[in-house]
Design goal:
568 residues; alpha/beta; Ribosomal Protein S5, domain 2; elongated; seven-stranded mixed sheet
Length: 568
């Protein structure tokens, strides 16, 4: 009894059996005590507990928890969990809900390594600090002895005591000894570490939280997403490769009043015990019921994805009952978080991390789905069905290497053959479209479209699918879209058009094929029109892209239009 300050107190064995937490850390309780002096005990233990009534969770029934979960739908349960965390789900989209729930994974999945970088004031460390008594939040550098124990073995380290060890304001860890990262590198891989002569193990998860100081689009274009990390971590690619999930903190809004709930959830103590009890369970093989992971995911990637799926299963489906569609959502979310880690490693310049076309396949249908990261584009932006006549997908790559993906839409109205901008067309894109329109107008009789062009006005709109504002030259895409509108014939489904043209119809090659075709594959493109001038560059494209995106080479605008429309 800590507050009573007396070590010799009699307690009934029945209380210990009923409330097992009395032996594993203690329980806040309301206690009735009596004093019975016994001369034989020599005054050491005259106090007896006559009644003990816990005022916090003293035992946890997993069967009851799972049975209760089965009575909820998936949406209802997610909302209950979010309200338990203190948030109001009614003001959130599904993706934001999933981001909040992902913060719980380190509390319920053993040896899970999470990093979240984002703006200040988004509650990154809230789950570890407030939702569970089993998490430790560090606000500065630590030592090997503190993390992993003393060499003598007399004092245990944090990774063997806590369920989660989290680093808040990770940028402040610049002065942390290199030895800590070296030891953590081994620990994050296997859960083992060496202290003295003997190896030891721990099952604490590692979470790292930090602030970004630049907009996400700037970080994506000019560097990588681990730049806010201190050098001691950022420069160690082997350590970064051991991170299982990169949570995009920039997608989480700053905390505001409407995000906090006034409704009921679980008692936090009860929910914390549920998360802790679920650490003993393993859902890493659940993925195999319906899906397989793609060839670009190596052993470490697959381990990361499986652990993320397992963690989300414990948070959302602790009873183990999940449909294929629900499981697919978890798998896609898990693959995205691991790919975000891998994409940054690729940007850091290491060739060994070049395979980032992460995917998963449906065992029943064999359909393979590629998963991108939203900040770079790559979330099924290209429809599998044909677009309406006059609409095409256009790809481009800027001088700084930034890839653009657009949907051009041309609508014809009665008129006098004029070109009119409806929206989204500016700068170099407008100039390239003007050149293409001039060429089309000069060749209208040769193409057999003189009357149609002279009696129609062309209203052009461009939709920037990635919202990254890259300067685009899309003359060929406009020419094909105009042909499509005039012939009332749609472009072949899932086709991307690359290339530009001069006012005389000469084809301009693309700066590079690898980046736009990678983006194309990630977004569902099956066919790409490529200038014949780029044919030699196509040999530099990875075999994986060649396997999924068929190149169609063209040498002039008319050939591009006919091939795009599937015309002879």
């Amino acid at each position: 009894l800590n507050n009573f300050n007396h070590r010799f107190v009699h307690i009934s064995p029945q209380y210990v059996r009923d409330y097992d937490r009395l032996l594993t850390g203690g329980v806040w309780s309301q206690v009735d005590m009596r004093h019975e002096y016994d001369e034989e005990t020599k005054g050491k233990n005259p106090f007896w507990i006559s009644k003990l009534q816990p005022i916090q969770i003293a035992s946890f029934d997993m069967d009851e928890y799972r049975t209760g979960r089965a009575a909820f739908s998936s949406e209802e349960w997610v909302d209950v969990v979010l309200r338990t965390m203190g948030y109001e789900p009614d003001v959130m989209e599904r993706r934001l809900k999933m981001l909040f729930l992902t913060r719980l994974i380190p509390l319920t999945e053993r040896n899970f390594n999470l990093v979240e970088l984002g703006p200040r004031g988004t509650g990154k460390s809230y789950a570890v600090q407030e939702l569970s008594p089993y998490g430790a939040l560090l606000t500065g550098p630590t030592t090997v002895a503190n993390m992993f124990g003393h060499m003598s073995g007399k004092q245990k380290g944090m990774v063997t005591i806590w369920d989660v060890v989290a680093f808040d304001e990770v940028a402040d860890l610049q002065k942390m000894p290199k030895e800590v990262i070296t030891t953590m590198k081994t620990y994050c891989e296997s859960g083992q570490f060496q202290r003295g002569k003997e190896a030891d193990t721990g099952d604490a998860s590692i979470a790292m939280f930090g602030n970004t100081n630049q907009p996400i689009d700037v970080m994506v274009q000019r560097g990588h997403l681990f730049e806010p990390m201190p050098d001691v971590i950022r420069d160690d690619m082997a350590f970064i490769d051991r991170l299982h999930y990169y949570l995009p903190g920039w997608e989480v809004p700053k905390m505001r009043p409407d995000l906090f709930t006034s409704h009921y959830g679980f008692v936090v103590d009860y929910f914390a015990e549920a998360l802790r009890a679920l650490r003993k369970h393993n859902f890493t093989e659940t993925l195999d019921k319906h899906f397989t992971l793609g060839s670009h995911l190596n052993t470490r990637d697959q381990k990361a994805v499986r652990k993320t799926v397992s963690g989300l299963m414990k948070v959302i489906y602790p009873h183990g009952e999940v449909t294929k569609e629900e499981l697919g959502e978890l798998v896609e979310f898990a693959v995205e978080g691991r790919r975000r880690v891998k994409e940054q490693l690729k940007k850091m310049g290491s060739f060994e991390y070049h395979q980032t076309s992460f995917s998963y396949s449906d065992k029943e249908t064999g359909e393979e789905k590629f998963v991108g990261v939203p900040e770079q584009g790559g979330r099924d932006l290209v429809a599998a069905d044909p677009l309406a006549p006059g609409s095409v997908y256009a790809g481009t790559i800027g001088a700084d290497g930034t890839v653009g993906l657009f949907r051009l839409e041309i609508t014809l109205t009665s008129g006098t053959g004029k070109f009119k901008v409806a929206g989204g067309v500016r700068g170099s894109m407008k100039e390239s479209i003007s050149r293409a329109f001039s060429y089309l107008s000069s060749k209208k009789v040769e193409f057999g479209m003189g009357k149609d062009i002279d009696t129609s006005d062309f209203h052009v709109e461009s939709i920037d699918l990635l919202n990254n504002g890259v300067e685009a030259e899309v003359g060929i895409a406009f020419f094909v879209a105009a042909f499509s509108a005039l012939r009332s014939t749609p472009v072949t489904a899932a086709t991307l058009i690359l290339g530009d043209m001069s006012i005389q119809g000469n084809i301009k090659e693309v700066r590079s094929l690898t980046e736009p075709l990678q983006l194309a594959m990630d977004n569902g493109v099956k066919r790409a029109l490529v200038p014949i001038e780029n044919k030699r560059q196509f040999l530099e494209v990875s075999g994986d892209i060649m396997e999924h995106v068929d190149p169609v080479f063209y040498g002039d605008p008319k050939a591009a239009a006919f091939k795009a429309l599937g015309m002879n």
